[in-house]
Amino acid sequence: MPFIQLLFRNRLAAMGAVVLTVILLLVLLTPLLPLPDPDVTATADRFQTPFSPGHLLGTDHLGRDQLSRLLHGTRLSLAVGIAAAAIAGFVGSAIGIIAGYFGGRVDNMIMRGVDMLMAFPYILLALAIVAALGPGLMNALIAVAAVNVPFFARNIRGITVGLAEREFIDAARLAGMGHTRIILSELLPNVLPVIIIAMSTTVGWMILETAGLSFLGLGSQPPQADLGSMLGEARSALISHPFTSVVPGVMIFLIVMSINLLGDGVRDALDPRLRSGALSRPRATTLVQRNDPVPAATEDLLAIQDLQTQFHAGNRVYKAVGGVSLSVSPGECLGLIGESGSGKSVTALSVMGLVASPPGVITGGAVRFRGDDLIGAPYETLRRKRGDRVAYIFQDPLATLHPLYTVGDQLIEAIQSHHAVSRSAARDKAIRLFKAVRIPNAESRVGNYPHEMSGGMRQRVGIAMALANDPDVIIADEPTTALDVTVQAQILALLDDLRRDRGLAIIFITHDFGVVGQLCDRVAVMYAGRIVEQGPTQSVLETPAHPYTKRLIACVPELGRGRRELAAIPGLPPSVEALPPGCAFAPRCTKAQDDCRSGQIALTGSYPRAVRCLHPEEAIG
Ligand code: ADP
Ligand code: MG
Q1: For residue 27, which of 78, 65, 64, 66 has the smallest C-alpha distance?
Q2: In order of start, what are the domains of the chain with their CATH numbers?
Q3: Is the N end or the C end of the chain the one with fewer CB atoms within 10 Å?
Q4: What residues sit around ligand 2, an ion, with C-beta below 5 angstroms?
Q5: What whole-number distance in Å separates Cα of residue 271 and Cα of residue 282?
Q6: Is 492 touching ligand 1 by the criterion CB < 6 Å?
Q7: pLDDT(110) > 90
Q8: Average pLDDT over the chain, rounded to whole?
Q9: Taking the model in full, what pTM does it have?
Q10: How far away, in angstroms, is 395 Cα from ligand 2 center?
């Protein structure tokens, strides 16, 4: 989405932009407006109230026209504030980049100097500088710029240090570039957005500081008006003629507010993470917009019925899941297999309303747990079932475990969030769970932090957390993809035991047919957001009907079968933004014919075996 559109979606930023534009236009046009001279005194007309003839905003203690003084004063204050921000931004960033880029002793010396400046209260420092240089608007500008240099230097140094260690800087060095060239062409473009954002959020602050110095009589000198000196001169008439203070006061308020609101808006709009979605946090559950009637309830423990989940980003619609139906019964393991990007994770996350919205929207179908539809269920209902009746195991346990709490504490939290049990009872249960997932020395292991455990152990903790509340269904999203094969085999054996002992239903997501063969009773093959084939594992493995399934199975290497041609599926999965009509696999399929490229192709066959193909490899019964 274009920057401006994104910026104006933020109402407050838009308001700030409008107010600031009006003020800027007014002060730019000030010399052209038919205003009286701001510095001409007329003591006979002292303290005229606003709206008196010839003086829209009244006059001050010397009879000078307030409107004229206000506009000229605002012009000056804005110019000084912006100039100070530009100087502080330039000098501070230069210091920060040099310190961060060269590091070591240079960094140490520069930053200790900056720290010394920072150790003084800044208004005191500004006062000291003006006292040394003598009062005057130019000196106030220098003082305000100087006291803000450390802010920029510290910020930009921090960012530069992170960038200076990156490989592209090393590459530039290897290419023989000099320091100046690296700083200007490699580093600067990366820190420039930060500098601009820091400036836009500090201009308001610098205008205030300049006004403060002028208020104390150290900035602009009479008769020249700026907002601070207008306030200072009005101070003696504060009680008798309050409007003389209100006029410049309101202007300062408007300028600083509008600059800050706009600055915040600019910062948010430049954040690339906000570009794809909206300027809002994800909702607690996925947004549901269903038009079609909801499929009727079934007997299954968990049934996904014609689920459709899309991502709406601007005008684009990504049909990540386009009508998926799956079901599991207690003690059963269903494999969900497909290439990366086929919509497996989105299907899994839709079950408990965990797809981030925006941009995720569930546009059709139902997910029934013991007959109750979970799609569109109130947040509280879903929250009570999340992790309690339906639990998830994710791919990367290091990313899902909190690095600063012991694994035992995290497990205890998982138990206590659904059951009102004492901490010691929860701890006992945590130890029992650790034993159940075969973590050796469970009693001492509960005190470990995630980084103290190996990948396989961490994934066991992940499984223990999923088991914490004796769920009925576990959805495992590629739980062994990050592990090496021996650990993978242990984890698979563990899951297999657990489902037999506890009657767990497991939906096991993977991209590896080898894994499916070891663990799953039934398997569903997913391609471009749809199920293209499903059936009992044995039958699908032995007689794959869909050409895609056959190619996927051929990708599994077999040990001891000598050398054979390594199979790969040519081409890439289609983008779910623009799916072709007919079979989504047709462009990559060697058996595709003309009829494959039009219309909707239905899933045919009788439960449990079905295939979505007009020219299957094998006829199925
Ligand atoms: P996988 O089968 O590898 O788990 P996913 O379910 O994660 O695949 O993704 C399915 C499709 O949804 C992909 O094509 C992906 O590009 C798309 N997708 C996922 N998240 C988003 C998002 N936030 N915005 C747009 N598209 C998304
Ligand atoms: Mg995935």
Answers
A1: 78
A2: 3-29+64-275 (1.10.3720.10), 302-389+471-542 (3.40.50.300)
A3: C
A4: 345
A5: 16
A6: no
A7: yes
A8: 88
A9: 0.68
A10: 8
Residue type, 532: V
Q: Is 574 in the pocket of ligand 1 (CB under 6 A)?
A: no
| pLDDT tens-digit map of 507-538 | 999 988 888 888 999 999 999 999 999 999 99
Containing 266, the helix (H) or strand (E) segment is helix 243-270
- Ligand 1 geometric centre to CA of 482 (Å): 19
pLDDT for 142 beyond 90:
yes
Position in ligand 1 atom list of the atom nearest CA 575: 14
**What is the number of residues in the chain?**
621
Ligand 1 close to Cβ of residue 527 (< 6 A): no
3-class DSSP state of 216:
coil
Three-state DSSP class for residue 595: helix
In the chain, what is the straight-line distance between the N-terminal and C-terminal CA atoms, in Å? 50
Write the DSSP string, 135-192. Answer: SSHHHHHHHHHHHHHHHHHHHHHHHHHHHHTSHHHHHHHHTT--HHHIIIIIIHHHHH
How many whole angstroms from its chain centre is CA 271? 9
Ligand 1 touching residue 318 (CB < 6 A): yes
Residues 448-502: pLDDT tens digits?
Answer: 999 898 888 888 899 899 888 889 999 999 888 877 888 788 888 888 988 898 8
Bridge partner list, 477: 509
Strand 473-477 to strand 333-337: parallel, antiparallel, or no bridges (unpaired)? unpaired
Determine if residue 54 is left, alpha or beta; phi over 0 gives left, psi from -120 to 50 gives alpha, anything else beta: left
Q: Is 340 in the pocket of ligand 1 (CB under 6 A)?
A: yes
DSSP for 90-133? HHHHHHHHHHHHH-HHHHHHHHHHHHHHHHS-HHHHHHHHHHHH
DSSP H helix total and E strand total for the chain:
23, 12
Determine the Cα–Cα distance for residues 388 and 379; give it in Å rounded to an integer: 14
Distant-in-sequence, close-in-space partners of 114: CB < 8 Å, separation ≥ 6: 95, 99, 149, 150, 153, 154
